[in-house]
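Hi V.,

You were right to ask for the full record rather than a summary. Here it is.
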Amino acid sequence: MKTFCNPLLAYGPDPYATFHDGWYYVMVTEHDRLAIRRTWDLTDLRNAERRVIGKAPFSDECYQSIWAPELHRIDGSWYVYFTGNTADDNDRNRRLFVMECLGPDPMQSEWRFAGRLKLPTDRYSIDATVLQDGERRYLIWSSKLTRSDGWYQHIMITPLITPVSTGDFDVILSAPTMDWERHDHPVNEGPQVLQRGNDIFVAFSASAYWTPNYAIGLLQTRSGLDLMDIRNWKKHPQPFFQQSQRNGVYGCGHNSFIQSPDKTEWWNLYHARSSPGVEKDGDTRNPRLQRIDFDSSGLPIFGEPLPIHHPIPKPSGT
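Predicted structure:
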């Protein structure tokens, strides 16, 4: 049996993977650049082909703090959604931006900076991802909104009209109201989509990422419903994936979902740390991979995060 061990890279927050034409494409936060890794074997990221498609500064609005890039194939073309900030790195100036590939091959074709993704409301916005349900397409992201008890992050949704333009209104899908979502700072961020049958799940990361309490929660809806109607969504009250003190894994979050090459398995690609200390400087987050199961109702079972260097059977078909 072929096995692999976590972590997949020594460093790499906010890992995102997509699969196309036999290849896995992976991006992580690299702060001053956008880089795509391509590999047949998701467990062998260290040896993946790597291409830098852009370096900061991209513009005055997108000068630094290049975070959470995601590569999406939409209507036959490639786009990267990512977060950037101004030269002063003012937290209130974080916005979403787009890179567009001008050819069919993201590893060879030219890329261009397409500018800021203009949302229904101009405010702090990070961590964009795309949900496709039939012919309807949505952008889901994290924005900070002012409430009576502070300014903190919510999960938002709006129609995605074209790959670079959204609808004229948005809806709050989730707010950090529960204790496990509010460690050090009230946060809902890093939304990620898992679609299985008619079930649509949106995972999100809660609490401050620099704490060991960073964890993954879950929203749920069904295909075919009006996803702009909050009544069609359910928020589960407990975290689905969180730190394991006995296994030495902390700050589990900002994940993505990916299937095995033969499409028989679902896997959780997430970042975590091996230290429980509160961490704002000296970032040690790295990407890790773990299989997901499902219960009889179709609800995903993430399990407990496994320790590093623990042998794990490779995804089926690898």
